[in-house]
Specification:
By secondary structure, this protein is α/β, with parallel strands linked by helices. The protein has helices at about 15-25, 45-50, 135-150, 170-180, 205-215, 265-270, 315-330, 380-400; strands at about 5-10, 30-35, 40, 60, 70-75, 80, 85-90, 95, 100-105, 110, 125-130, 150-155, 190-195, 220, 225-230, 235-240, 245-250, 255, 260, 300, 345-350, 355-360. It has two domains: about 5-105 and about 260-340, FAD/NAD(P)-binding domain; about 110-260, FAD/NAD(P)-binding domain (3-Layer(bba) Sandwich), CATH 3.50.50.60. About 25% of the residues lie in helices and about 25% in strands. The protein has a five-stranded parallel β-sheet with strand order 5-2-1-9-20, with helices on one face. The chain has a five-stranded parallel β-sheet with strand order 11-18-12-13-14. The chain binds flavin-adenine dinucleotide. Flavin-adenine dinucleotide binds near residues 105 and 305.
Amino acid sequence: SSQARIVVLGGGAAGMTMAARLRDLLDGARITIVEPSEIHHYQPGWTLVAAGVYSVGEVQRRNERYIPRGVEWVRSAVAAIDPESQRVETTDGDRLDYDFLVVATGLHLDYEAIEGLRREDIGRPGLTSLYASAEAARDAYEQIHAFGEHGGVARFTIPSTPIKCAGAPIKATFIADDLLRTAGQRAGADFHYHTGSDTLFSVQRFDHMVRDLYAERGVSVNDGGALLAVDVDARQAQFQTRDGGRETVDYDYLHVTPPMRAHDFVREAGLAVEDGPLAAGGWLAVDDRTLQHTDYPNIFGAGDVVATAIGKTASTVRSHGAVMPDNLVDVIQDREPSRQFDGYTSCPLITEVGKAALVEFDYSLEEVPTFAFLDQGAPSWMWWRLKVHMIKPLYFNMLRGRYLR
Ligand code: FAD
């Protein structure tokens, strides 16, 4: 059984971490990573690119530095999975047979689900999205300054789907607000945060905190709904209204957080959740504690792709890394999965350039602070410095299977 063939789909935060941990746990297993990109993107750093703190180069590294020794790297994308014949097909037409499969392909940013919008439009005058890429985050930084010179209406959107790092749209708003304040241009700008949800954050304390800070800084919260359409040339955006209608408004600066879902091949392979609130996104159907697929015991999931109620952060991957590979080894060795994921989700919630609150919670939606002797929920320069100086090295160590939670 140590000769088991394990194929890991995706070599991002989760794929790399799971492969590194599996390599350490198993002697002689044949592990393959399928990952098309030469570059690893440190996405949690993109908010800091948008704040002008990190350069684009500081959030990119070459994948070849992180592929674990002894692990084979197939530089291709998954096109299809056949869970019955235990085979993966790549976009290059190669076929890979597996005994055990780890799905870690992250999620798809569905800009095209917004009428009139294409991903390539991000970066056109007035239209930004720090979710699109490091370059787009840099562009958001440049465009907020261009916007500040003339002033006008700035709008920040939230989709109705689950999203990775649920705090990032809030951070994007606070960063833009702060950059304009520093430039002495905030008075000429009218800020709107568009959400269809009754809450701004799933943990009550932070919901209240963000609401209070928005009120203090003059960010109006439009309890409308999701962004439905954009006319990029006319700089108009159309939102869902509370009563199910549509409302069209002008903008000078629009920050889009796109709808998100799993890649199509998950659903096409019959591996997606089919019922409940997560069904529309085609997320990978796993047990939310063991991360084992609900129909195929030889398939596991990790990272953003899995259909858990919360937990689309890189910090979550630290916990997945301490659970999923051990459970896979249990299954290889004919035991029941022994480890349980608790829903751990975390992010430093930037409230201004130079300050952040350190948010950590689990399935209970209660705080689970690492530094319980300090008040992590109060915005402080300390958590900002943790974010800027410490989390990045921690992340890149995680990719090598270290500092798991
Ligand atoms: P990814 O890291 O996105 O990796 C997916 C990989 O799959 C990629 O390498 C991709 O190339 C590959 N792939 C895609 N399609 C295929 C295919 N067909 N075949 C093979 N491979 C494929 N997390 C935090 O913890 N804290 C934060 O402060 C934070 N801030 C964030 C801010 C922003 C703006 C963004 C975008 C994310 C942030 N995150 C944060 C979230 C974090 O980056 C993700 O949760 C994490 O990267 C998830 O890991 P993953 O491996 O599931 O997905």
